[in-house]
Every structure is written in C-alpha cells, then in structure tokens.
Amino acid sequence: MAKSFAPRVSKKKRKTIDLSENLNRDLIKLADDRLLRGAKLDEILIKDIIVKEQVRTKFNDSSLKELSANIKVNGLIQPLVLHKSEKGYTLICGERRFRAMSLINMKKCPCFILDNKSEEELMAIQFSENSSREALHYIDKADGILNYQKATKASERKICAALGISKSEVHRSLLIARMPVKLRESAKIHNIEKYVLLELDALEKSLLKTKLTKLVHAGEITKRSQLKKAIKSGVVAAGTKKKATASTSTKKKSALPKGLTASAFLKAMNMKQKDLKLDKKTKDILKALVEETKDMVDQ
Predict the structure, then answer these.
(1) What is the structure's pLDDT at 174?
(2) Which CATH number characterizes residue 41's domain?
(3) Which of 6, 117, 182, 247 could form a disulfide with 121 if both were Cys (CB 3.0 to 4.6 A apart)?
(4) Which 3 state secondary structure label does DSSP give 82?
C-alpha cells in the first residue's frame, strides 16, 4: 500500500513552532518534583539558617533590591530549600531569596526541608534549582559542574544524566572551570562571552596568546568577534614581518651567475689560470687569491 505524504510547502510559507519555552518549564518542574520528593514544608527562623558556599557567586544588587520589594508586598512565593542535619538547617537553594529577605529584616520564611540526603543528591538539587531561576553565570555553572564531578567522581555522561544538561555543555563547562582564576574572574567582571575563553584557551602557547590574554584580563576583548579580529590582525603582522626578513636575507646573498655553485666557480678559476700565459709572480698571486676565496666559501 502506497504511503501518502503532505503536500510540499515552500520555506517562506513554513511556520516555525517554538517549543523551547514550554519544554524547559516542564523539564524544570519534573526535575524539582523528582529531586524534592519527600521534602516537608515548614516555617523556619532566618537566623537559624546556615549559609554555605553556593553555586551562584555573582549577584545583581539592583535585582536583589527589586526582589526584596516584591517579597515585602507579596511574600515569598518560592520557598527556600534546606537540609536538616545535626548542625541545623543548611541552605541548599535560594541564597538570592535569602539575601533579599535579609535586606528587609524578615524574621522567618517558608522552606522545603530535606533530610537523609547524600552529598551527591544535594549538589544535584542545588545545581538544578539555580539553573532554573535567574540566569546563572556560566562561570558559576562551570564551577558547580566541576565541584559535582569532584564530589561524585562521575564521568561526563553520568553528569549529563544527573544534571539534565548536554554532554557538550558539560565538556565546555569543565574546560572553563579549570582555566586560571584571574581569567575566570575577568569573565565575570567584564561580562566576557564564554566562547572568548574557550577559543583563547585553544590557542597554542605564543607571544600572541599572551598579548590576547592581557587584553581579555583588561576587558578590552569581551566578544568572540573581537577576539577573531585580534587574532587575524596578529597573524597578518607576523606574516608581513617574516616576508620582509626573507626579502632582506635574499639581498645579502652573494651574486653568482645563475646555476653556478661556489665550488664550480672555484674549479673554473683554477682551470682558467693554467691556460693563461702569466709570469710566476702573477700566477702565485692569483693562486693565493683563489685559496682565500675558497676559504671564505667554506665558512
């Protein structure tokens, strides 16, 4: 039985369906439901919450003030995530909300309380929650992935499955996380595109790379296009210099008849002097001259 196909539609008339927004929201909801399974909702005093180093290290001050004002009017819509242990309640997710509430001196807030969770599970929850909220800086994201790998000894493939991100993103993030501290700090200060760091890191060690790194540190190169332009101009300058040197060295070479080597030239001179009718004194002078020329060529 022959298959039936829909009629062909030209590219201009084709409709583009963007499913990314709904898909990401659904994935985040599923991740939150799975990772927060078994959590209890309760109100906790803010002064009793222990804050440790989080995935996110860059906070926007104006954004925090806006969030504080919103919480003051509407209350905390998304509860914090805490882990209960012998030490007390440790903040796992929501440091930005925690800071915003501290600005308006809130006394207590609603929290999801987890217990009996492994370090691996807590790190996965923390990474998932931070990635789904306000845009997480790629440096913080990279550090989070590297910390997860160090804590769990997981392969890149296992990290993909645990954190719900692509293998290429995991690989790039691990490369960035292992770059020099000064370079990563510059990326956060000057909002440098991550591909600037990746392409700079891929360059072979050279004087050009050193110069480019200094420009990145200073925030003079922040975009990929700027880096490509700088690399191209550096290569052209180096090429021109080499050509000039080659041209100069060509001019310095001794001018012999085309196709005649220095050895052949000396041999011809020896043969020629035998044919000439010269007195002994002149022959001796000519012979000495040939020997000196030979010594110079040998050097």
Answers:
(1) 94
(2) 3.90.1530.10
(3) 117
(4) strand
CB 34 within 8 A of CB 161: no
d(CA 145, CA 169): 10
Q: Say how many CA atoms lie within 13 Å of 112 toward its Cβ.
A: 20
CA distance 59 to 70: 17
Pair 32, 136: CB distance under 8 Å: no
On whether both 163 and 184 belong to a single domain, the answer is no
H or E, element range at 123: helix 119-132
Same domain membership, residue 213 and residue 143 = no
Q: What is the pLDDT of residues 2-52, one digit of tens each?
A: 656 667 766 566 554 443 343 344 433 444 555 566 778 899 999 999 987
Per the CB < 8 A criterion, the answer to whether 80 and 111 are in contact is yes
What residues in the chain have per-residue pLDDT under 70? 1-6, 9-37, 53-60, 128-135, 235-278, 281, 286, 289-299
3-state SS class at 237: helix
Give, rounded to a whole angstrom, the gap between the first and last alpha carbons of the chain.
88
How far apart are the C-alpha atoms of 208 and 202, rounded to whole Å? 13
In a domain, 274, yes or no: no
